[in-house]
Design goal:
The chain is an alpha/beta fold. It has three domains: 19-340, ABC transporter type 1, transmembrane domain (ABC transporter transmembrane region fold, Up-down Bundle); 354-438 and 525-608, Rossmann fold, CATH 3.40.50; 446-522, no CATH class. The chain has helices spanning 2-8, 12-18, 21-32, 34-70, 74-126, 129-132, 135-178, 181-225, 231-236, 240-292, 298-340, 402-409, 432-437, 453-458, 468-477, 481-486, 507-518, 537-550, 563-566, 586-592, 595-607; strands at residues 362-370, 377-386, 391-396, 417-422, 425-426, 439-442, 525-529, 555-559, 571-576, 579-584. It starts with a helix and ends with a helix. Mean pLDDT is 86; it is low at 1-7. The structure holds adenosine-5'-triphosphate. Residues 133, 371, 374, 378, 396, 398-404, 444 line the site of adenosine-5'-triphosphate. This is ATP-binding cassette subfamily B protein. Its main location: membrane.
């Protein structure tokens, strides 16, 4: 929290420090499109010289006209028309360059947004599950996402900044030759506006940063308030009023906060602009006086007045843009911070080769696990071995720690205490990809990909996405094949309602599709975490019967609340408040007359 507060109060030093992000940012832009970036720079250099050249030619034209008035010669007239021709070409060139620059900016912006979105997705994929479950992490991810689009503006602003600086160099040189004090006058007139801008930008940034969690909530409310997945429940519970109210309360607060800053900013901005005008007209009066006295020609008057006016506009936009650029650079810190988040679960330097086949199995040694930011142990004192070829069932009441245990097996989390051994060595000593490659796991909250039937199955082993034979075989094994036959487009049927021609499946049908994923890879351990809860009793029995048959010789962990399924397992682990209450075969546990027997009889009675 302390850190957040310091971030919210940005000082000029923070701004300047944030500018250090720019080289890394430009590197990223360069990687997005090197050719486009180079072209952009060259075009801007060319464009930077044009305002000065236009003013200079304008001055020459006026002086030439005045000279012709006094003393006409055809040579001088030809010269005049040549000058007009040059000005015309410059004007056309300027317009063309502006358009080309805008085009380059927008194309480069698109390339950058695509490139960074990919980078974010790639990086997010390397991070740990518990990092995704952390609100602070989500805020960072959210801010990093915003950067992908918002930062394309930063790009064109920094480029414009450089371009304007060059233009200023040209114009200022002209002004200095005439009277350097004019430049000072200019800076004094502009400085208050700059300081004001930077103050308000800081406030806006601090506000926007503190609003991030609420903005995520707004997005969430917008999503549940209007989405195909939520519509049914929202309607039935008549929740829309509740959601809309919450949305309104939050968004009204946003509006009021933002309005407060915008109004203040606009009032002060008007005052500062007035100061700028006073400075400009002071200089203008001075130049006119000099011209009246004959110290300057009319051409020089237009050149200097024009230079001064343009310098003012340019300086104003440069200074104004400085706060936006440094602002952008501060936002960039969020972006780079996201890339600095390192996964805690990663490979050791020299991972062990994965045993194939596994000889001793997985051994839990005093394993305990607590979720991030949680006081409670989700699993504790786990001591048991999952033996090769064994089918193990996990039972226990809701929240007993069954899903957590299988997530530990797949190293989605590492134990908080104790260790899990595979063939005698800590799971952490094996290559993470190898481990996951040898484990097939289907979660209770598996994803319903809004993709084709075939892709939904191939998700289990995406390297084999074109292996139709394997996909069909997996579908047959999970009993999803029957379903494909009924779909209008068979295996190419789009599933879900999100995209056109999509067909929605029933909960049980989705589960059959998901289970097929488990058969897509030749895993040594298959884990089914309640993916059959929506199947009818007969279907679940069939699925598990097949499952036992197909995974003969392999290890399997099943989680189910149905005892008819659970009893098929070789051994059953009964979990209670994260700890092992009992362990043994169906018969042993019944004979023992403990918790399992009690739960079994409870369910059996329910079926009578
Ligand atoms: N991502 C999480 N972050 C924090 N706590 C969690 C998380 N997931 C689960 N828990 C907590 O850990 C405990 C064990 O949860 P787990 O999902 O392992 O139970 P389960 O036995 O699979 O339950 P169910 O039968 O309802 O699926 C619960 O008290 C739950 O509140």
């Amino acid at each position: 929290m302390a850190k957040r507060n310091t971030i919210n109060n940005i000082t000029m030093k923070d701004r300047l420090r944030a500018l250090r992000n720019l080289p890394a940012f430009f590197k990223l832009v360069w990687q997005s499109g090197p050719g486009m970036m180079l072209a952009n720079i060259l075009l801007r250099f060319a464009k930077a010289a044009i305002p000065f050249l236009l003013l200079l030619v304008g001055k020459l034209i006026i002086d030439q006209v005045l000279q012709l008035n006094r003393n006409h010669s055809s040579f001088a007239e030809v010269h005049l028309w040549k000058l007009v021709g040059v000005e015309f070409v410059l004007a056309i060139l300027s317009d063309g360059l502006s358009r080309a620059i805008t085009l380059m900016d927008s194309l480069l912006g698109d390339l950058f947004a695509n490139h960074t979105s990919v980078r974010i997705m790639e990086h997010a994929a390397t991070l740990d599950l518990d990092q995704f479950e952390d609100a602070v992490f989500y805020d960072k991810l959210e801010r990093a996402r915003q950067q992908t689009v918002g930062r394309t503006v930063l790009l064109s602003q920094v480029m414009s900044q450089i371009q304007d600086l060059i233009t200023i160099g040209f114009l200022a040189a002209g002004l200095v030759v005439f009277n350097p004090w004019l430049i000072l006058l200019l800076v004094i007139a502009i400085l208050p506006a700059f300081l004001g801008e930077s103050y308000f930008n800081d406030e806006t940034y601090a506000l926007s940063r503190s609003q991030t969690p609420h903005r995520r909530e707004l997005d969430y409310l917008r999503y549940i308030g209007a989405s195909d997945e939520t519509a049914k429940e929202i309607k039935m519970f008549s929740l829309s009023g509740f959601i809309v109210d919450r949305f309104k309360t939050l968004s009204d607060k946003f509006y009021v906060d933002n309005k407060r800053i915008s109004v203040k900013r606009s009032l002060w901005g008007t005052l500062f602009a007035l100061l700028g005008s006073v400075g400009y007209y002071g200089a203008y009066v001075f130049i006119i006086q000099q011209t009246v006295k004959g110290a300057l020609t009319i051409g020089e008057l237009t050149f200097l007045a024009g230079s001064f006016r343009q310098l003012r506009t340019l300086l104003e936009s440069i200074l104004g843009r400085f706060t936006t650029v440094s602002q952008g650079a501060i936002y960039l810190s969020d972006f780079f911070e996201f890339f600095e988040i390192e996964p805690q679960i990663h490979n050791t330097n020299q991972p062990r080769p994965f045993p194939n086949p596994i000889k001793q199995g997985f051994t839990f040694e005093n394993v305990g696990f607590r979720y991030l930011n949680s006081e409670r142990w989700a699993n504790r004192n786990l001591n048991f071995t999952l033996r090769p070829a064994e089918k193990l069932a996990l039972v226990g009441e809701n929240g007993a720690g069954k899903s957590t245990l299988v997530k530990l097996l797949a190293r989605l989390y590492d134990p908080t205490e104790g260790r899990i051994l595979l063939d005698g060595y800590d799971l952490r000593e094996y290559d993470l990809n190898d481990l996951r490659q040898h484990i097939g796991i289907i979660f209770q909250d598996f994803l319903r990909y809004q993709m084709t039937f075939s892709q939904n199955i191939a998700a289990g082993n995406i390297d084999q996405k074109t292996n139709e034979e394997l996909i069909k075989r997996s579908a047959r094994q999970s009993l999803a094949d029957e379903l494909a036959k009924k779909l209008p487009a068979g295996y190419n049927q789009m599933l879900g309602k999100r995209f056109s021609d999509g067909v929605e499946l029933s909960g049980g049908e989705w589960q059959k599709v998901a289970i097929a994923r488990a058969y897509m890879r030749d895993a040594q351990l298959i884990i089914l975490d309640e993916p059959t809860s929506a199947l009818d009793a007969r279907a679940e029995f069939q699925v598990f019967e097949r499952f036992t048959e197909l995974t003969r010789g392999k290890m399997a962990v099943l989680i189910s609340h149905r005892f008819s399924t659970v009893r098929m397992a070789d051994r059953i682990v009964v979990l209670d408040k994260g700890e092992i209450a009992e362990i043994g075969s169906h018969q042993e546990l019944l004979a023992h007359g403990g918790r399992y027997a009690e739960l079994f009889q409870l369910q059996a009675a329910g079926y009578q």
